[in-house]
Design a protein that fits this description.
The structure holds two protein chains of two kinds.
Chain A: E1 3-9, E2 13-20, E3 26-32, H1 40-53, E4 60-66, H2 69-75, E5 82-87, H3 93-96, E6 121-124, E7 127-128, E8 134-136, H4 140-152, E9 157-161, H5 170-182, E10 187-190, H6 191-194, H7 200-231, E11 238-240, E12 246-248, H8 249-252, H9 262-278, E13 283-288, E14 293-299, E15 302-303, E16 305-306, E17 309-311, E18 314-316, E19 320-321, E20 324-326, E21 332-336, E22 342-348, H10 367-373, H11 391-405, H12 409-435, E23 443-447, H13 451-462, E24 466-469, H14 476-483, E25 486-497, H15 500-524, E26 531-541, E27 548-552, H16 554-559, H17 562-577, E28 586-597, E29 612-613, E30 618-624, E31 627-635, E32 643-646, E33 649-653, E34 656-660, E35 664-668, E36 674-678
Parallel strand pairs in A: 1-4, 4-11, 5-6, 5-9, 9-10, 13-23, 29-32, 31-33
Antiparallel strand pairs in A: 1-2, 2-3, 7-8, 11-12, 13-14, 14-15, 14-20, 16-19, 17-18, 21-22, 24-36, 25-28, 26-27, 26-28, 30-31, 32-35, 33-34, 35-36
Helix pairs in contact in A: 1-7, 2-7, 4-5, 9-14, 10-11, 10-12, 11-12, 12-13
Chain B: H1 5-29, H2 33-38, E1 41-46, E2 52-54, H3 70-75, E3 84-87, E4 101-110, E5 113-123, E6 152-156, E7 159-160, H4 162-171, H5 175-203, H6 205-227, E8 233-241, E9 251-260, E10 263-267, H7 290-303, E11 317-320, H8 338-356, E12 371-377, E13 384-391, H9 420-426, E14 429-436, E15 452-458, E16 463-468, E17 479-480, E18 490-493, E19 501-502, E20 508-511, E21 516-520, H10 535-543, H11 549-556, E22 560-561, E23 564-565, H12 567-580, E24 589-590, H13 593-601, H14 604-615, H15 619-635, H16 646-658, H17 660-667
Parallel strand pairs in B: 10-11
Antiparallel strand pairs in B: 1-2, 1-5, 3-4, 3-6, 4-5, 6-7, 8-9, 9-10, 12-13, 12-16, 14-15, 15-21, 16-20, 17-24, 18-19, 18-21, 22-23
Helix pairs in contact in B: 1-5, 1-6, 4-5, 5-6, 7-8, 14-16, 15-16
The chains are: A alpha+beta, B alpha+beta.
C-alpha cells in the first residue's frame, strides 16, 4: 500500500499525518522541531514512521509540507539586507504607510521599523501614469547610481516597486534588466510580479516581505528537497500555501510570499474538510496553541479569504485564508492588578519555559496550570510523552494567584479559566460582528494542543450548540495540507465603470488571466488533470473607497452581460452591508481569477456505528462552576464510532485533552469525530 | 455594594464585546464616507443615568470615551420599549458637538425597568444650511450650520416617527445617504440591546446593574491611580490658533490644571472670548464634557495602557468654563469647525500634563495640516469629480526615552490616507510628491516626528481645493527641556515658480490647469538638547533624507562629510555652541520664535487684563472689542508698549468712551 504524508513544521513540534491510500487509515506523529537544522526533523519523522508504523519512504506516493521558516525570518528579522527602489518623490511609502497607527489611543504608538530601512530606499527617475502610459522611462543613470549605493550599503536583494506598475510593469522590468547587468548576484523582486494590484503601500510592503524572505526560504527548500530525496522519498514534494492550496515545492523558491501563512491556512482547510464530512456548513475553526488562539470563520463550507493578513509586524496583501490571532493560549499568564482584578494574558509562557506544571522552569500560573488544578489535566501524558505534568507545581503557582485574590486555589483556577474564556469571547464576538454572522448558527471546531480543552466553556458563552473534535486535533494542519487542492491566484487591476466599454476591456483582462493561469497550472505546476477557473471582481459603487469581492460567471464576461454582473454586485453588497442601490453607478476595480486542480482525493474510512454507551477507563474529580464533581475519563483511541457519553468527562489522547463539562454530551461519528452537543436546558 | 472582581473582569470583556459588535454593525452597514474613511462615528452602552460604561476601541473616533448622555436622556420625559431618540443640536444638552453629528439613544428595558441605553453617533455628510457639508469657518450662527433636531423620538414603540424623518430629510442635501446612515445607527443600537440582554441572561440582572456601575468605578479608580503619580499642584499651559476667524487675530486657549490627590480641576479662565466664526467649542459649561476628556484620555491611556476606557475616567475631573468664551459659547454661536479648536484643546491639556510630568509626557505633536478635498472636472468625460484626497498629518513629539514617530501618530493616529494610485486613477491629478517633509521635525536629543507633505498638479479649470482645519502657519508647537519646536505647516500655490503664492491658512482655493498645489503639515517638536543627540543618529537622519546636512550643522552641531560624521569638527562645533547657550538648565518649554514675539507684546499680564475687562462686557461685544484692542496694541510704536496690562487697560478705557452704551452696561 502507498501512503500520503502531510507534514506541518511548527515552532515546537513537527506534526505528521499519514493516510493509507487504500485503507483510509490515519496515523499521526509528532517530533520536536529543529529550527537550526532545516529538514532534520522531517528526516527524523520519516525514520520514526518506518520504525513505528512500518512505512518505508519509498511507499510514500504524495508528500505535502508546511513550514514556518518564512514567517520566522520576518519575526526574527533574519532576512537578507534589502534595498527598495521607488518612484522618485515617493521614497517614504513604507514610513508613511496608510497613516493609521497600531493603537490610536496611545500617544506613543509607533510603527515597526521597515524591512528595508529608509536609508536603503532609493528614488528612481521614472513615471507611469494611472492609465498605463509611460510618462518617463526609467532613467538608467539614476538606476545605476542607486544600484551602486545599495551594493555599497550591503544590500543583497533589491525590491522594485513603482507607481502604477500594476497596469504597466515595463519600467520595473527595465530596472530589473539594469540590475542584472550591473550586479548579477543581486536577488530581485518586482512588486508587479508579487501581486499586481492598485494601492502602492500595500503592494510595496508585500513585495518587501517577499524580497526579504526569498533567499532564506529558497535555501531551506533546496536543503529539504535534497534531504527528502536522500531519505528515499521518490515523489515530487508539494508545499502548502497561504491561500489554502498546495504547489510544487520548487515553485516556493520563486514565490515564497505565497507560503508564509500556510500553517494557519492548512489548519482551516483541515477544519473545513472535517466540517464537510460531518455535513455542517458553518463552523468556527478554533486552533489553540501555547501562545495564541487562531480563529477563522468557515461559511457555507468555504473558508473566508482576505488580504492584509499579518506576518510578524507586517500585513501582506495577497489572497490568504483569513485567520484572526488572539493572544490567548495554553501558556497565557494570569496576574492580579493593583485593584485586585484578575487578568489573563497577553503575556505568555509560550512553549519554553511553558506552563509551570510542565516542570521546565515556568514560574507563572498559566491557563494550562489552571486546567490542571481543576482536575482536567494530569491523568495522562501530554505531547506524545514529551511532557509529564507536575500537579504540585500547578497548585503552587495558582495558589499564589489565589492568595492575592483571597480565595481557594481551585476557585482561583476556575476564575483564570473563565476570565481567559471571556477574553476569547470578546475577540470572537468581534470576528462574527465583522462578518455580520450569528454565532448561534455555527459549530465550533477546536484543534491544536489546547483547543479541545477550552471548547465547551467557549461554546457555552458564545451560544454554540455543537462542537466537532476531529480524530487528530493535534495534527489538523498536517491533515489539511494532505487534502488541499492545487491552487493559485491571479489579479488584474481594471478600474473601469460597469458599462459596455468597461465590460469589453474586462473581457480582454479575463482572457489574459486565463492564459496566465493555464500556463501556470500545466507548465509550472505540471498538473495534468482538469483545471477549474473561478472569476471574481472587486467592485464598488462610485465614490466608495473600498471594494467587495463578487464571484462572476465566465459566461457573463464572455457575453458582456452587464445586467448579471451588476445584479451579482448589488446582491453581494446587500448581503455584506445590508443595503444596495440598483441605480447607482458601479465600478470594477480588480478582476481576479483562482485556478485550481483537484488533488487526488483520499478515501477516508467510514465505520459502522455501534450505538451504545461508552465505558470510562477511570473516574476522577474535577472542579468547575464552583463545585467538585465526578468525571469519567475516556481514551480517545478506545472510543468506537457510535459510542456516547455525557459530561463532565475528560477525553485523553496522545496530543491533547478534550474537556466536557456538565450539560454537554458526546458521541463518536462514523469518521471518528467526537460530536459534542449542548443539552437544550444548559445555559 | 460591588460585584466580585472576577465577575467584573468577565463582565468587562462581555461589555466591550457588545460595544465592539455595535461598532462593527454600524461600520458594516453605514453609507457615509465619513464612516468608512475616517471612522468618524461612535457606539457605546450607558448606564440608565447616561454614563458610558463600554466603548469600542478597535473602530470609531477616539473622541467620545467620556461621553455622558445624561442631559439628552433627561430631555425626554417618558420612554417606552422600542423607542429610539435622536438629536443633532449642539445647544440641546451639549452631547452633540456640531450639527453633522446625529446622536441616537435607545432605552433597554428589563421587566419594565430601563437597565441601560445603547447609544452612538455618525458624522453625517450634510445637515443642510449655508454650505455643502454644513461646515465652514466663516459661519457665525448655528442656524447657518443646518437643521437642528432637539432631543426627540425618531421611533416610538418600534415605529418610525415619519413626520420627524420627513422634516429632517427635506432639509439635508443627501437624504438617501443620511437615511441609510440613520438605519445603520439604529441597527447598531439594536445590536447593543441584544447584547445587553445576553449579558443579563448570563450574569443576572442584579449583577449586571451593579456591574456596569462598578465598571465606571474601576476606570475611575485606575484614572485616579495614574493621576496620583503627579505631584499635587497647579500646572498652567496655553496655546494659540493662528486665527480666531478667517484672516483673524491669534486665538488663545489657556488652562490652569490643578492636581489634588488623584483629582483634576481644569480652569479655562484666560481663554479667548466667544468667536465670530465656527471655531467655538460647545461644552455648555459641562465640567466633564466629552471634548475636555479627549486630551485627558490620551494622557492617562498613554501613561497606562491598561486603563479601561469609559466615562468613569471623567469622574476625576471638574472644570471652570467661563461663559461667553470660546470654550463655553452662548447660543447661537457657530460651532461647526470645533474640530480645529478641539485639537488645540487636546494640546493644551497634554501641555499641562507635560508641565506636570515632564519626564513622561512628549513634546507637541504635529499639527495644522488640513483634510484635503478636490472638486474638479475630468477632461475626458466632462464629469465633475469630488474626492477626499488626504488628511495631512504628522508625527509625535519627542520624549525622554525616544524620538517621536514620523508622519503620523500621537493624537492624529486614527486617520487614514488615500493611496496616490487611487487618487490618480479617480481624479485627474498628478502627484509629484507624497512623503515626509525634510527638516520638519523639531530638533532635540530626541527628535520630533516629521510632518507629511504632498504636491500635485491640476489639469482642469475651475478646480476647487478645500483645505479644512488649516493652522500652524504662524505659531508652532512646543519643544521640551531644550528640544525645539517643529516646523510650521505650509500651503502654497505654484511654489518655486514666478507664480508662487502663499495660501497660508486659506480654507478653499480655486485653481486651474497647470497649477501646482503644495501642502505640508507642521512637524512635531523635539525633546532634550539637540547638541546632545547622538551624532550617528543625526547622520542616519541625513542619510534618510529626514534632516538636511545644513540643519545637522545648524541645529545639532553635527558636521557631516560624505554622509559620515566628522567627529573632530563636530566636537569642536558642539563645544562652541554649548558655550554660546550656556545659560543653566533650559526652560521646560520652547515655543518658537513666532509665539515668543507675540507674547513679548501680548504678555501674560496683558492677557489677564484683557480677560478681566472683556468678562465684564456683554458676550456679543467681546470678540469685536478684542479685535479693536489687538489693532490698537499693534498700532503702538514698539518702544511704547509696557506689557504690564496698562496698555490694554488704557486702550479699553478709550473704547468704553467711544461706545457709551458699554459704559452703561459696565456700571450696572
Amino acid at each position: 500500500m502507498t501512503y500520503r504524508v502531510g507534514v506541518d513544521i511548527g515552532g515546537t513540534f513537527t506534526d505528521f499525518c499519514v493516510l493509507g491510500e487504500t485503507s483510509g487509515d490515519i496515523k499521526t506523529l509528532k517530533v520536536l522541531s529543529q529550527p537550526d537544522k532545516p529538514g532534520a526533523e522531517v528526516i527524523e519523522g520519516l525514520k520514526e514512521l518506518e520504525r513505528r508504523y512500518g512505512i518505508p519512504p519509498a511507499d510514500i506516493s504524495y508528500f505535502t509540507h508546511g513550514t514556518t521558516v518564512g514567517v520566522n525570518t520576518v519575526i526574527q528579522r533574519r532576512g537578507v539586507p534589502l534595498a527598495l527602489f521607488t518612484t522618485e518623490g515617493f521614497e517614504d511609502v513604507l514610513e508613511v504607510a496608510r497613516l493609521k497607527m497600531p493603537d490610536p489611543y496611545d500617544l506613543f504608538s509607533r510603527r515597526p521599523e521597515s524591512l528595508s530601512p529608509r536609508e536603503r530606499v532609493f528614488g528612481i527617475r521614472e513615471r507611469v501614469l494611472a492609465d498605463g502610459k509611460i510618462d518617463t522611462p526609467a532613467d538608467a543613470e539614476s538606476v545605476i547610481r542607486a544600484i551602486d549605493r545599495a551594493q555599497a550599503d550591503g544590500a543583497q536583494a533589491i525590491v522594485v516597486a513603482f507607481l502604477h506598475s500594476y497596469v504597466n510593469a515595463a519600467n520595473e522590468r527595465r530596472v530589473r534588466d539594469l540590475i542584472r547587468e550591473r550586479s548579477p548576484e543581486m536577488s530581485i523582486t518586482l512588486s508587479s510580479e508579487v501581486w499586481p494590484v492598485i494601492r502602492e503601500y500595500e503592494r510595496t510592503v508585500t513585495a518587501t516581505v517577499a524580497g526579504y524572505v526569498q533567499a532564506r526560504v529558497a535555501n531551506y527548500l533546496s536543503t529539504w528537497q535534497a534531504a527528502l530525496k536522500e531519505a528515499g522519498v521518490a515523489c515530487e514534494p508539494m508545499i502548502t500555501k497561504s491561500n489554502g492550496g498546495v504547489m510544487r515545492a520548487e515553485l516556493g523558491k520563486t514565490a515564497p510570499i505565497q507560503m508564509l501563512l500556510s500553517g494557519t491556512a492548512s489548519g482551516v482547510i483541515g477544519a473545513s474538510r472535517i466540517a464537510a464530512q460531518t455535513g455542517v456548513s458553518s463552523v468556527l475553526s478554533f486552533d489553540v496553541g501555547g501562545t495564541s488562539a487562531d480563529v477563522a470563520i468557515i461559511h457555507d463550507g468555504k473558508p473566508a479569504f482576505g488580504t492584509g493578513e499579518r506576518v510578524g509586524d507586517f500585513q501582506i496583501h495577497i489572497p490568504t485564508v483569513s485567520v484572526s490571532s488572539i493572544g490567548a493560549g495554553g501558556g497565557s499568564i494570569a496576574r492580579v492588578d493593583e485593584f485586585n482584578v484578575l487578568k489573563v494574558g497577553p503575556e505568555s509562557a509560550g512553549s519554553n519555559p511553558g506552563p509551570a506544571c510542565y516542570g521546565r522552569g515556568g514560574a507563572n500560573a498559566t491557563i494550562t496550570d489552571a486546567y490542571a488544578v481543576c482536575g482536567f489535566l494530569g491523568s495522562g501524558d501530554l505531547g506524545y510523552g514529551a511532557v509529564t505534568l507536575d500537579l504540585n507545581r500547578a497548585h503552587e503557582v495558582v495558589g499564589e494567584v489565589a492568595g492575592k485574590l483571597g480565595m481557594g486555589v481551585e476557585a482561583a483556577a476556575e476564575a483564570i479559566i473563565k476570565v481567559s474564556v471571556s477574553g476569547m469571547f470578546l475577540e470572537i464576538s468581534k470576528l462574527f460582528s465583522r462578518h455580520g454572522a450569528d454565532p448561534r448558527h455555527f459549530a465550533l471546531l477546536p484543534f491544536g494542543g489546547a483547543g479541545p480543552m477550552t471548547a465547551c466553556l467557549l461554546a457555552r458563552d458564545l451560544g454554540l450548540e455543537r462542537i466537532i473534535v476531529p480524530p487528530t486535533p493535534g495534527v489538523l494542519a498536517a491533515f489539511g495540507g494532505l487534502v488541499a487542492d492545487i491552487r493559485n491566484d491571479f489579479i488584474r487591476t481594471a478600474f473601469v465603470d460597469l458599462d459596455k466599454a468597461g465590460l469589453t476591456s474586462l473581457k480582454g483582462h479575463a482572457a489574459d488571466l486565463a492564459q496566465q493561469a493555464r500556463t501556470w497550472l500545466t507548465e509550472e505546476q505540471k498538473f495534468k488533470g482538469h483545471a477549474r477557473l473561478q472569476y471574481s471582481a472587486d467592485m464598488r459603487y462610485r465614490g466608495q473607497s473600498y471594494e467587495i469581492e463578487v464571484p462572476l460567471q465566465e459566461a457573463w464576461i464572455e457575453t458582456g452581460n452587464l445586467q448579471a454582473v451588476g445584479n451579482a454586485f448589488h446582491a453581494e453588497h446587500e448581503r455584506v452591508y445590508e443595503h444596495a442601490d440598483a441605480k447607482a453607478p458601479v465600478q470594477i476595480v480588480n478582476l481576479r481569477l483562482v485556478v485550481s486542480g483537484a488533488s487526488p482525493q483520499p478515501k477516508v474510512k467510514r465505520a459502522e456505528l455501534m450505538r451504545r454507551a461508552a465505558t470510562p477507563v477511570a473516574e476522577t474529580r474535577v472542579f468547575y462552576d464552583g463545585a467538585h464533581v465526578s468525571a469519567g475519563i475516556y481514551d480517545r483511541d478506545k472510543l468506537v464510532p457510535g459510542e456516547r457519553f455525557a459530561g463532565p468527562a475528560i477525553v485523553r489522547q496522545s496530543d491533547c485533552t478534550t474537556c466536557l463539562v456538565g450539560g454537554f454530551r458526546a458521541t463518536v461519528d462514523e469518521f471518528s469525530n467526537l460530536i459534542i452537543t449542548r443539552d437544550a436546558s444548559a445555559s | 455594594m460591588s460585584i466580585d472582581t472576577i465577575t467584573l473582569e468577565i463582565l468587562k470583556n462581555h461589555a466591550r464585546a457588545a460595544a465592539e459588535s455595535m461598532a462593527f454593525t454600524l461600520y458594516r452597514t453605514a453609507h457615509a464616507t465619513f464612516v468608512k474613511e475616517t471612522e468618524d462615528f461612535t457606539t457605546g452602552l450607558t448606564t440608565p443615568a447616561g454614563e458610558t460604561y463600554a466603548t469600542p476601541i478597535e473602530l470609531g473616533a477616539t473622541w467620545f470615551v467620556g461621553l455622558n448622555y445624561g442631559p439628552v436622556i433627561r430631555a425626554i420625559p417618558h420612554y417606552d420599549e422600542g423607542d429610539i431618540c435622536i438629536t443633532n443640536d449642539p445647544y440641546s444638552g451639549f452631547v452633540c458637538t456640531h450639527s453633522p453629528d446625529i446622536h441616537i439613544w435607545k432605552p433597554i428595558f428589563h421587566e419594565g425597568e430601563i437597565v441601560s441605553f445603547s447609544v452612538g453617533h455618525i458624522h453625517h455628510t450634510d445637515m443642510g444650511g449655508a454650505v455643502p457639508a454644513s461646515l465652514s469657518r466663516s459661519l457665525t450662527e448655528v442656524h447657518q450650520e443646518g437643521i437642528r433636531i432637539p432631543p426627540t423620538k425618531i421611533m416610538t414603540k418600534g415605529v418610525v416617527n415619519q413626520q420627524v424623518l420627513d422634516i429632517l430629510m427635506a432639509n439635508v442635501r443627501a437624504p438617501e445617504q443620511s437615511w441609510g446612515d440613520l438605519k445603520a445607527q439604529i441597527a447598531s443600537c439594536n445590536t447593543g440591546e441584544r447584547k445587553v440582554r445576553e449579558m443579563i441572561a448570563k450574569f443576572g440582572v442584579a449583577t449586571f446593574k451593579q456591574g456596569i456601575e462598578d465598571l465606571l468605578g474601576y476606570a475611575e479608580a485606575q484614572a485616579r491611580a495614574i493621576v496620583r503619580r503627579i505631584p499635587d499642584g497647579a500646572y498652567q499651559f496655553a496655546d494659540y490658533m493662528d486665527e480666531d476667524a478667517v484672516d483673524g487675530k491669534p486665538c488663545r486657549l489657556n488652562l490652569m490644571m490643578t492636581v489634588k490627590d488623584g483629582s483634576l480641576h481644569f480652569d479655562f479662565t484666560g481663554s479667548d472670548p466667544q468667536l465670530e466664526s465656527s471655531l467655538n467649542i460647545p461644552t455648555g459649561g459641562d465640567e466633564r464634557h466629552t471634548l475636555l476628556c479627549v486630551g485627558l484620555v490620551y494622557a492617562l491611556y498613554s501613561l497606562d495602557p491598561t486603563l479601561f476606557l469609559n466615562s468613569g475616567i471623567a469622574r476625576i475631573l471638574s472644570s471652570t468654563l467661563p461663559k461667553g468664551t470660546m470654550i463655553n459659547p452662548q447660543f447661537p454661536a457657530a460651532v461647526g469647525m470645533r474640530t480645529l479648536s478641539a485639537k488645540r484643546l487636546q494640546g493644551v491639556i497634554l501641555g499641562a500634563f507635560a508641565r506636570a510630568l515632564p519626564g513622561e509626557m512628549p513634546a507637541a505633536s504635529a499639527s495644522g495640516g488640513p483634510i484635503m478635498n478636490v472638486n474638479t472636472t475630468d477632461n475626458r468625460t466632462g464629469r465633475r469629480l469630488m474626492a477626499a484626497i488626504n488628511p495631512m498629518v504628522g508625527g509625535a513629539g519627542g520624549r525622554a526615552m525616544e524620538d517621536g514617530a514620523d508622519g503620523s501618530g500621537a493624537n492624529q493616529g486614527f486617520l487614514k490616507n488615500t493611496p496616490v494610485e487611487i487618487n490618480e486613477a479617480e481624479v485627474p491629478l498628478r502627484f509629484e510628491r507624497y512623503g515626509l517633509a525634510k527638516d520638519s521635525g523639531g530638533p532635540g536629543k530626541h527628535r520630533g516626528g516629521l510632518g507629511t507633505e504632498m504636491k500635485f498638479e491640476v489639469f482642469a479649470p475651475n478646480t476647487r481645493v478645500t483645505a479644512r482645519n488649516r493652522d500652524r502657519t504662524v505659531f508652532a508647537g512646543w519643544g521640551m527641556r531644550g528640544g525645539r519646536v517643529g516646523a510650521n505647516s505650509a500651503f502654497w500655490l505654484n511654489p518655486g515658480s514666478n507664480r508662487a503664492f502663499n495660501l497660508r491658512n486659506t480654507d478653499i482655493v480655486k485653481v486651474g490647469p497647470g497649477d501646482v498645489v503644495y501642502v505640508a503639515c507642521g512637524g512635531a517638536s523635539g525633546y532634550g538638547d539637540p547638541l546632545e543627540r547622538d551624532p550617528r543618529k543625526v547622520a542616519l537622519d541625513v542619510r534618510r533624507g529626514y534632516v538636511s546636512a545644513d540643519k545637522a550643522r545648524e541645529d545639532y552641531g553635527v558636521v557631516i562629510v560624505d554622509g559620515a560624521v566628522d567627529a573632530a569638527a563636530t566636537a569642536s562645533l558642539r563645544k562652541e555652541r554649548k558655550a554660546e547657550s550656556q545659560k543653566g538648565e533650559p526652560a521646560i518649554f520652547d515655543y518658537g520664535a513666532a509665539r515668543d514675539a507675540h507674547e513679548a507684546i501680548w504678555t501674560e499680564k496683558s492677557y489677564a487684563t484683557l480677560t478681566k475687562l472683556l468678562a465684564a462686557q456683554p458676550v456679543h461685544w467681546r470678540f469685536y472689542l478684542k479685535h479693536r484692542v489687538f489693532d490698537a496694541i499693534a498700532a503702538l510704536p514698539d518702544g511704547e508698549r509696557k506689557g504690564d496690562g496698562s496698555d490694554v487697560a488704557r486702550i479699553f478705557a478709550k473704547l468704553i468712551e467711544e461706545f457709551p452704551q458699554l459704559a452703561a452696561q459696565a456700571a450696572e
